[in-house]
Amino acid sequence: MPLQTLSSESPDSTQRLHLLMQLLQTLDNGLILLDENYNVQLWNSFMENHSGIPISDARDRNLFELFPDLPRSWLTRKIDSVFKLQSRAFCTWEEHPRLFDFKSTRPLTGHSDKMYQNVTLIPLHGLNNTVSQVCLLIYDVTEIATRKKELEAANDTLKLVSRTDKLTDVFNRGFWEECLEQEFLRCKRSQRPASLIMFDIDHFKTFNDTHGHQAGDEVLRVVGRLLKRFRRSTDTAGRYGGEEFG
């Protein structure tokens, strides 16, 4: 039932209003009601606990005075669009990881000392059927965000491992050939020249037979380190096979 329809004239309505306010205060999400001037009309316990600003101090205060670090121009556009279009708007943690600079409630297990948030902006209609307030719902999605970032980091690591020659730590033949093909197509399209350099290590088989495979592996590692050290950032260095590099 909308707040505007609850009347204090009957005990039943008063009881419903009391229960509704209890519910809003005990939500596991942040809840802020703003008027058209961005002044706070409702501020629940979640916001009080995480911001350190008591409900009595927040009411009728401008949101941007309470949180000077908010992206004001961006957020006011969001809020104004909800008032004007009378439709919901959303802000995900990928867009703004932390709209409100709150600490994480699980810094040890969540692997983040800050709270990642999703925010939903909801238009609220008054008795005249016009939008009189906008409700901001702030969701703590720290666990979801950190797990996704950990998964992305793990995938990046796996991708790098799949592209890298284990012995020399330069790109392996498969990925190097992919880069070569892409570079060839780019040069063909742009009509600009590029250089391809391939080399091997002289007398490597004799060195291996004389000093052993462990010594030969160390030579390959040294060549790999030298390639990574002296190549330009735009160059692609890889091991083609055996003692052959490009």
Low-confidence stretches: 1-8
Q: How much helix, percentage-wise, in residues? A: 40-55%
Q: What portion of the residues fall into strands of 2 or more residues?
A: 15-25%
The largest beta-sheet arranges its strands as: 2-1-5-4-3
CATH superfamily of the largest domain: PAS domain
CATH architecture field of the largest domain: 2-Layer Sandwich
| Number of spatially distinct domains | 2
State the end-to-end CA separation. 71 Å
Give the structural class: alpha+beta
Average pLDDT over all residues: 88
Query: If you consult CATH, what is the topology of the largest domain?
Result: Beta-Lactamase
How would you characterize the largest beta sheet? 5 strands, antiparallel
User: Count the helices. How many?
Assistant: 9
Q: Output the CATH class name of the largest domain.
A: Alpha Beta
What is the gyration radius calculated from CA atoms?
Answer: 30 Å
Tell me the series of helices and strands, N- to C-terminal: HEEHHHHEEEHHEHHEE
What is the overall silhouette? elongated
Based on DSSP secondary structure assignment, what is the total number of beta strands? 8
